[in-house]
């Protein structure tokens, strides 16, 4: 039975670390299931392992069908899934074009901004949850999702991809939110340390 994992917030050191390659795939299918469940619960489109405190090169993502007008925001996301992705040790091998769209992040809940510089098309070489090699060609929104999640594996958050002036504006505009996330991240780590004693 898949479980919902706590999502690490901005300020947690695990989000700044470069994640390690996955070599042992024995635990990956179960972890991916938990991560997908966590992503659905948080109503996200992608979730990287560092966001649940695991510094490994793995992320999950989903493509959803458009929301029906009568569904409303609380409708079950799982019923709208067109395609699920479990991507282990992903590497972008081809990039083309430029784009910038509105982005958010489950580790910065409620904050959105445009301005992160992204490629319009990417080709990603990766392994699935069983370690089998795969390649995905993505463009537009899906290409942004791939780049956003791979950035997490390198300790990079989306606002760090903005031009300096826009990044500064984002940080100033959301100073209080970011400070609150950092406070919550510290409290979570203190609590986790107490439990492990």
CATH architecture verdict? Alpha-Beta Complex
Strand content: 15-25%
CATH topology: Peptide Deformylase
Rounded to the nearest angstrom, the radius of gyration is 17 Å
Topology (elements, then pairings):
Elements: H1 28-41, E1 46-48, E2 58-64, E3 81-96, E4 103-104, E5 112-113, E6 121-127, E7 133-139, H2 141-153, H3 164-173, H4 175-196
Antiparallel strand pairs: 1-2, 2-3, 3-6, 4-5, 6-7
Describe this structure in words.
This protein has 197 residues and is of the alpha+beta class. It has a single domain, classed as Peptide Deformylase. Helix content is 30%, strand content 22%. It has 4 helices and 7 strands; from the N terminus they run αβββββββααα. The chain has helices at residues 28-41, 141-153, 164-173, 175-196; strands at 46-48, 58-64, 81-96, 103-104, 112-113, 121-127, 133-139. Strand 4 and strand 5 (112-113) form a beta hairpin. It is globular, with a radius of gyration of 17 Å.
What's a quick, concise take on this entry?
This protein has 197 residues and is α+β, with helices and mostly antiparallel strands. The protein has a single domain, classed as Alpha-Beta Complex (Peptide Deformylase). It has helices spanning 28-41, 141-153, 164-173, 175-196, and strands at residues 46-48, 58-64, 81-96, 103-104, 112-113, 121-127, 133-139.
